[in-house]
Recover the amino acids of this structure.
């Protein structure tokens, strides 16, 4: 395993210095090879699907099934990634420290990514494309139900890469669950872990590795309906934020309602939500206004990922902010209000990656933000925060070029001043 | 302790939304109060110095001693920090997702910093200024020998802040070593740990907390003298990189020399280094050329922080890059060469925060880079990497403002396209 990681790192070092053109050629080679071997891939996936028939849920089966159309989409995705702007070599600082002593901050790959994902074969194709585009090696571990498909895909990817400048060792597949633990311990060789899957799994990863983790465990998002909300916005946004895709991490779990607007708003929104099949749970004040189950303290900490919504009445804006900063997961929280001051206070004081005014939390997504690709949504406070595109897979280095310059010139009794002149 | 952290967080949330003017007024209040209470501070420091007389090394005593001049310098430093550009509210992305649906990425404080530093009272003053300027709360823990001075300083800072818009609770002082362990466990309340001190201590912190750590344990920096090096640059840069301040993390520990230039270069550089009192340790090939001690495998992994330099002869550029990527600490590494291709290869392939061509590694420093302040040098790969200024104490949030926009509009059968137009 350590050997695999070392091989990946060596291949990644070679990949890191390839041109965008060479990386894009490798992506095109992968796309073509996947097209050419379509039958082999579908057959392997059929075997996986048959083996897990009746063993896994319908939702998981749907994700596991690749099929011709999904495979076509994934191949188109590889070519889309090739079309993205090169994330490497971007100059983010260019400064003369003194005449002829020039500092450049330049984006470069992280090194080796460890990506642990669900039994979703199309995810393997997407992750591999993003890794190659960003000049990183990648160690992949997919859900065990997709083992045949993943093995076949990586075999085809290796064959394709062997015809390009990218060393096939840059892409590795782990096949057993036991290897995950080892992967998490390889902080010397792996620079970033991207876990996908259940909240529990992501939390397990976060708590069992020293490697930086990109992702989030909980997505407990809130929408606050302020006293001066426009109900023509409040109702459709609430319905969208809860029901447009309830399993998504950016769907709301708790609706906070200003006490002054609750009597008018709650009956209307309850009707609209019920029409979509949403089950409501409310605090005592909510129960006095609409018919719903009783919410407990536990509800404020729960990500239902389902058509369930908890409702709490708050006395004012600060009560809403307090609740969110206490129970939220720093993912995405919104306010509906026509009062610009209240909107500003909310956006400034709520501590979350996304703070929204008069729109649905469902916009929290790398594609919707226009990042072209999304590698994950981070709820940690240090950057990268929120939806993360390709730029989450790169770092930077400082390149300083001189002409024999020494630090002594700028220290001691008669120090020469730096010019610090941006170029 | 948890209560202290909670209080700090609450105060930090208030501080986070103050204007730059209000934060600068707080800094001016601190500077004035320190001036006014100069005698009290010096007296407290005298007590600390007397108590540790003969107990700690001369170097530590020198750091512990505040004195009138150093205090004046530290107070001037507070005012300098106030003059720095506001790190908060910077717009780093401004994009129309669709008409009236506007995304902004805006810099904001991290929250609460935990800073553990040596027995250096002036460090407390500098760290507190940087925290307030960047809108963060700070929990401070200084070396135990400086306890009197630190307690007095924080008392004065609290009095000063109580006259300003900044809640004094934003600055907290821990006084016992036992509290460090608790601090490292408060990942719910503390957003960034900045440890200063010995490599062992920083490593202990890195290995015992889930909170992100800004800093570095080792500073094993290299200089490679390429075949085509100009000796008029190679010799003074080597001497500067080793001797200008040997205890600094950006001083070199290992000199790598191309075998073709070694016979000519080594005797000259050995003479220049010996004149500065540097002890040399070399591999067998080096020993055949100059008189020096034998270097062992362990030497390549050692940060001497002293006037000692290990020397290794390598066959070529790639041998040097391999050695650095194997033994280096990803801090700062340089090449001396007149061959631009070799310089480019080195700068691209060496995996370090700083990669230098024809200049001394001693330039790796936030002030020298023109950042105005330095909160630390990070050797992790994820940003912030390298010397980190005030921007290492801030993060960002995404603010999205709409007019009742819902995600359903952009999905399903007839999805409206996003405009993704940068503003």
């Amino acid at each position: 395993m350590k050997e695999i990681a070392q091989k990946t790192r060596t291949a990644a070092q070679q990949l890191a210095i390839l041109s965008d053109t060479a990386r894009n050629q490798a992506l095109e080679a992968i796309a073509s090879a996947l097209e050419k071997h379509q039958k082999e891939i579908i057959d392997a996936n059929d075997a996986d699907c048959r083996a897990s028939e009746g063993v896994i849920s319908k939702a998981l089966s749907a994700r596991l099934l690749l099929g011709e159309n999904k495979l076509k989409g994934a191949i188109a995705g590889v070519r889309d990634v090739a079309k993205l702007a090169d994330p490497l070599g971007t100059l983010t600082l260019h400064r003369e420290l003194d005449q002829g002593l020039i500092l450049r901050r330049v984006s470069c790959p992280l090194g080796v990514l460890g990506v642990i994902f669900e039994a979703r074969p199309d995810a393997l194709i997407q992750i591999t494309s993003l890794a190659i585009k960003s000049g990183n090696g990648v160690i992949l571990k997919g859900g065990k139900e997709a083992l045949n498909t993943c093995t076949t895909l990586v075999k085809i990817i290796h064959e394709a890469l062997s015809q390009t400048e990218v060393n096939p060792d840059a892409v590795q597949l782990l096949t057993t669950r036991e290897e995950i633990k080892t992967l998490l311990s390889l902080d010397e060789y792996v620079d970033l872990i991207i876990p996908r899957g259940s909240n529990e799994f992501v939390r397990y990863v976060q708590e069992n590795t020293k490697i930086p983790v990109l992702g989030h465990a909980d997505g407990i998002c809130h929408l606050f309906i302020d006293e001066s909300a426009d109900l023509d916005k409040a109702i459709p946004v609430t319905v969208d934020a809860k029901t447009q895709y309830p399993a998504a991490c950016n769907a709301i779990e708790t609706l906070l309602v200003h006490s002054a607007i609750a009597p008018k708003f709650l009956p209307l929104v309850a009707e609209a939500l019920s029409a979509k099949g949403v089950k409501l749970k409310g605090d005592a004040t909510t129960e006095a206004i609409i018919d719903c189950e009783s919410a407990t303290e536990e509800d404020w900490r729960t990500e239902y990922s389902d058509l369930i919504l908890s409702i709490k009445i708050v006395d004012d804006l600060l009560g809403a902010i307090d609740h969110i900063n206490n129970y939220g997961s720093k993912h995405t929280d919104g306010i509906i209000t026509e009062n610009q001051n209240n909107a500003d206070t909310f956006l400034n004081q709520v501590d979350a990656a996304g703070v929204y005014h008069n729109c649905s939390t469902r916009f929290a997504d790398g594609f919707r933000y226009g990042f072209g690709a999304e590698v994950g949504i981070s709820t940690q406070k240090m950057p990268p925060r929120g939806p993360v595109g390709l730029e989450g897979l790169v770092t930077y280095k400082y390149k300083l070029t001189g002409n024999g310059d020494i630090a002594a010139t700028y220290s001691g009794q008669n120090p020469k001043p730096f010019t610090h002149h941006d170029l």
Q: What stands out?
A: Residues 343 and 357 of chain A are 6 Å apart (CA to CA). Chain A touches chain B through 72 residues (CB under 8 Å). Chain A has a mean pLDDT of 95. The longest strand of chain A covers residues 394-405.
